[in-house]
Amino acid sequence: MSEQGSTILQEPEEAVLGPTGRPLTDFPEPPVLSSHGPARVIAMVNQKGGVGKTTSTINLGAALAEAGRRVLLVDFDPQGALSAGLGTNPHELEMTVYNVLMDRKADIREAILTTEFENIDLLPANIDLSAAEVQLVNEVAREQVLERALRRVSDEYDVILIDCQPSLGLLTVNALTASHGVIIPLICEFFALRAVALLVETIDKVQDRLNPGLQVDGVLATMYDARTLHSREVIGRLVEAFGDKVFQTVIKRTIKFADATVAAEPITSYAATHAGAEAYRQLARELISRGGAP
Known about the structure:
Layout: E1 40-44, H1 53-66, E2 71-76, H2 81-85, H3 97-102, H4 108-111, E3 113-114, E4 120-123, H5 132-135, H6 145-151, E5 159-164, H7 170-178, E6 181-187, H8 190-193, H9 196-209, E7 215-222, H10 229-242, H11 255-262, H12 267-270, H13 275-289
Parallel strand pairs: 1-5, 1-6, 2-4, 2-5, 6-7
Antiparallel strand pairs: 3-4
């Protein structure tokens, strides 16, 4: 039989799968913004500590800033880790987010600090914030206090990221009420999965009673170690529970994040070419492509 004119069929190339079991996507570079504001407010929430909330807030904010977005980082944890992570000594501050919450006459702009990193401003916190939870109990519309404060500067930023304390108390409810979206950082360990149901229940209650527009932007797997079956199984469970809400971008475990914290810099400037820096750049691109940021 003549082979002339015959067609050779090639096997389709198999898609390369990422840690979440989905084909890896190369998210496009974000478009250049012609103007800035109003900001989309995103709360970084998990009532469990040690899951990478502060690290993710700093580095996602830095990656968004690199992409030309004006970013305000709000430290909403009395421990002040976010403030310290950007080179500020929380204990030396005369005005913080606590003053903005408790004094209606306080000007939020006087509390906001300009950082040394382009396009990133900081609304700091310190131990004073721990008193706000008790003092706000008797306030009228106590769940909306942060939302009212941020409204005054919303037009000056593209993204506002709120680093919440590891709790589901009144401060976290304030953050959820002020936000358009929620990112849930979750360490890749089984015991971390157990608390997520309670967090989702709290988000549902805030949606129902206080902020109908609130949505879960995504679940971010952190401290992932591809060498362990444990990490891979946790990712599988996350995808089973949350589906496409799980970000394709996964943050792998590396000592560079701790080194950057000691240097009081985002990893995008401390180790600009490191895989951890690129992971947060990809997360920023993924968030923007999902519509979670302008």
